[in-house]
Write a structure and sequence with these properties.
CATH class of the domain at 543-787: Alpha Beta
Distance between the termini: 73 Å
Strand order of the largest sheet: 13-12-11-10-9-8-21-22
Structural class: alpha/beta
Strand content: 15-25%
CATH architecture of the domain at 543-787: 4-Layer Sandwich
CATH topology of the domain at 543-787: Metallo-beta-lactamase, Chain A
Helix content: 40-55%
Largest sheet: 8 strands, mixed
């Protein structure tokens, strides 16, 4: 019994940390539960064999609950002064870079004047609001708008709960926003200045996508990463590299330590210097839960080194939990917090045995693979719970990305450091600028390779597993299953240890040249297998029309076996059309037709013209001054794309495809019409006796005056909205196949009258919201439909 008590006494710090952290979590749930547990613990202390341990746990449990309650009160009190519908006016400081969205950009702000002073809000900014990512955080705005509580979450994601975990009181629906040109001061202002210089140095000389990637990886500011790229990283299972995490702190210390030694800093001063560097980097990188955890663990480890004492990882992890929860007792509900701690626990329990099983590999490689695999396994159930999917490609992708991530981080961090000296005048500033340019030339190809690798693994067949773990019980069961598998694997591998050790010893006795040859051959075989399995699709064997599933938007791709590919519209920016094109085997577009100005038609083309070479762009803007539309046209022209106004009558030959523009006709000079839909491009695409009508959002009012031929297929105009003239249009076209470009929407698309008209005309009708991407394949003169799911719809809505 004495030995047992001694064992418990040695673990008093762990018991105390665990009890305090539990109290902090319970403060956000129920103080009654915390007091009940504490009372039970105190009662047990009188009966148990370890009263000191029990009393300590009870005391710290109550202490954590009280501290957490006080902290939550401090976080929530400012927002309690506001009621839904209250008018809010005053100055606010941006604490995050504005993120684009369907309803306009949004950004987190803190009010610094007016009746809402001190309240953290999510500001819904007016459309067209733009802020430079390098200087947005810390800048001051004069805002005027209406406060709203966020009560309901979207399916699968409780947005209101997310805002609560961030300490945000609600939304400010901004009616007026004006920069004041003021900036916050103090410590936060110093960090802002360092961040601005770092950001400008990091992204200098890089294209927009590469700049957004390195900004996210080094500074945690991933707002500018194109949606298609973000989706690639998510589906490849390497989305974590776009956000700062524990690996950033580790890599920062690994970079700084030899530099400090080379600079002649005494050994005893290196740990304090690294501590200061971590203290600056955590707020510089956004101070999210993951980087907070890493900062605390790093500081604990460095403190232990400075004191020449051992630093158990479990102690540092518990300390990190206490600190992060003390800052925000609701942080435990944040997916980033959960994933960060789960990854560390997985590494602590699984990395060492995995590394031992890879002992035949060079030690750095074996340890890198072990860390990656352990973290991937440990976070899989949480990813399934929060996002409903697990990337099977992630295990391979994370290992393949290992040689790229560290160099990108180090080069980015070096550029951030050099950026502090670039503004200096004289030789030092010139030298800093030249050094930064050199590092940029090294960084650009690494970022391009990482982007290509993410796209490659994202497209891997079967790379994503749809798996939704809906509750804590299912998540716990998943972790129990993982633990069971780990135990079984360990038992099985013990029997193989002797043979494996013999094989490893044999390999190690071989001459170095022979071992290198074996490694090269093995790597080549793995590369060939990956290249074969992940090779992108080529052009289809038959003429194929794809009505792409881009959500509530419109995008149609026509591909011919001769390699010609024409895209009509690109859906909304969030539709990911560039990614769908890549999956369809499109590496170059013969033509892009922008039928008219409408976000759900032209929005996604920004990614297309930036990422895919385009030979010809037909501009159907009809004189629009919309900045996003004009920016796409300008971007295409800057890349050497030929730009032509889309006006009727016109006939184009693109490979074996014939495109006849039927509308719109030229109009008198003057401003563009208020409604662009009736003057959307109407075209007939023909090939080998197959005819297709595409008409953007132009409905019967614009179509009936035209000379409409019989067609085999058509895209239903304007997402299937109500159109009294549609029956007459169908009577003249006599299509066999129709597709409705529609997603989840609040407009009532497609209208029941439209579905009924298609049903009465005996047209086989498909819709993207139910059928996914719909493909019409023309084989030997006969057209048939291949949909991702489901059957054609009937006349019922």
């Amino acid at each position: 019994m004495g030995a047992a008590l001694t064992w418990l006494d040695r673990r008093l710090p762990y018991v105390g940390i665990g009890a305090f952290a539990t109290g902090l979590v319970l403060s956000g749930l129920s103080m009654a539960v915390a007091l009940g547990l504490a009372t039970a613990s105190i009662a047990a202390a009188g009966l148990g064999k370890a009263p000191r341990v029990t009393l300590l746990a009870a005391s710290l449990l109550v202490g954590g609950s009280l501290a957490g309650s006080a902290r939550l009160d401090a976080i929530d009190r400012p927002g309690q002064r506001l009621d839904a519908g209250d008018r809010v006016a005053g100055d606010a400081v941006l604490t995050g870079v504005p993120r684009p969205g369907r309803l306009g950009p949004s950004a987190e702000v803190v009010m610094v004047s007016g009746p809402a002073r001190g309240v953290r809000l999510l500001a819904r900014l007016p459309r067209g609001f733009h802020a430079d990512p390098a200087s947005a955080v810390g800048s001051e705005l004069s805002l005027r708008g209406t406060f709203a509580r966020v009560r309901a979450g979207t399916p699968g994601f409780d947005f209101a709960a997310y805002l609560r975990t961030q300490g945000i009181a609600g939304e400010l629906r901004v009616e007026h926003a004006r920069p004041t040109r003021a900036r916050r001061g103090g410590w936060h202002g110093l960090v802002d200045r360092v961040r601005r210089r770092s950001d400008r140095a990091i992204v200098a000389g890089l294209d927009s996508t590469a700049a957004s990637l390195v900004r996210g990886m080094v500074l945690g500011a991933d707002e500018g990463v194109p949606l298609v790229v973000r989706d690639d990283f998510r589906d490849a299972g390497i989305a974590h590299v776009l956000a700062v995490s524990g690996q950033n702190v580790v890599l920062l210390c690994a970079l700084a330590l030899p530099l400090l030694a080379a600079a002649g800093l005494p050994y005893g001063a290196r740990a304090p210097a690294l501590l200061a560097l971590i203290a600056l980097y955590v707020p510089l990188a956004g101070a999210g839960p993951s980087i907070q955890r890493a900062g605390v663990m790093g500081a604990a480890s460095l403190g232990a080194v400075a004191l020449a004492r051992p630093a158990p990882r479990t102690y540092a992890l518990g300390l990190a939990a206490c600190v992060t929860l003390l800052l925000n007792p609701r942080a435990y509900a944040d997916p980033g917090w959960q994933l960060s701690f789960a990854a560390v626990v997985g590494i602590a329990t699984l990395a060492a045995p995995i590394a031992r099983s890879l002992s035949a590999l060079p030690r750095p490689l074996a340890e890198g693979i072990a860390l990656t695999v352990a973290a991937t396994i440990a976070t899989a159930p949480l990813l399934a719970h929060h996002f409903g999917t697990v990337s099977l490609a992630g295990l391979i992708a994370n290992v393949a990305a290992l040689p790229l991530i560290a160099p990108i981080m180090w080069l980015g961090m070096l550029r951030a450091g050099i950026g502090q000296a670039i503004p200096a005048s004289g030789p030092s500033g010139d030298l800093a600028g030249a050094s930064n340019d050199l590092l940029g030339r090294l960084l650009a190809p690494l970022l391009s390779a990482l982007e290509d690798m993410a796209a490659l693994f994202a497209d891997m067949p079967g790379g994503q597993l749809d798996l939704a773990l809906t509750g804590p019980a299912e998540v716990a069961a998943a972790y129990a299953a993982i633990a069971g598998v780990v135990v079984l694997v360990r038992r099985a591998t013990r029997r193989l240890d002797t043979r494996a050790s013999t094989a490893v010893a044999y390999v190690r006795r071989l001459p170095r040249v022979r071992r290198l040859a074996i490694a090269v051959v093995a790597a080549a075989l793995v590369g060939l297998l990956l290249a074969r399995g992940l090779a992108p699709a080529g052009p289809p064997a038959d003429l194929t029309v794809s009505f792409l599933d881009v959500g509530q938007g419109d995008a149609t791709l026509i591909q011919h076996p001769d390699g010609s590919a024409v895209l009509f519209d690109g859906g909304p920016p969030e539709g990911g059309v560039a990614r769908l094109l890549r999956r369809a085997g499109v590496r170059r577009l013969s033509a892009v037709v922008m039928t008219h100005m409408s976000r759900d038609h032209h929005g996604g083309l920004a990614d297309v013209v930036e990422r895919i070479p385009v030979d010809l762009l037909l501009d159907g803007g009809d004189g629009t001054t919309d900045p996003s539309f004009r920016a796409i046209v300008a971007s295409a022209a800057a890349r050497g794309t030929r730009v032509v106004k889309a006006m009727a009558p016109a006939t184009l030959r693109i490979g074996a495809l014939r495109i006849e523009i039927l509308s719109p006709r030229p109009r008198p000079p003057g401003p563009p019409p208020e409604d662009p839909n009736p003057r959307a491009v109407v075209a007939i695409v023909s090939c080998d006796g197959f005819d297709l009508l595409l008409s953007g959002d132009a409905e019967s009012e614009a179509l009936l005056p035209l000379d409409l031929p019989d067609v085999e297929a058509m895209k239903v105009p304007h997402h299937g909205s109500s159109d009294p003239g549609l029956p007459e249009v169908l009577d003249r076209l006599r299509p066999e196949i129709a597709s409705i470009p529609v997603g989840v929407n609040s407009y009532g698309h497609p209208a029941p009258s439209t579905l009924s008209a298609l049903h009465r005309a005996d047209v086989a009708t498909w819709r993207n919201d139910r059928n996914g991407t719909v493909r019409v394949v023309v084989e030997n003169g006969s057209a048939h439909v291949e949909a991702e799911r489901g059957e054609p719809v009937s006349g019922a809505p």
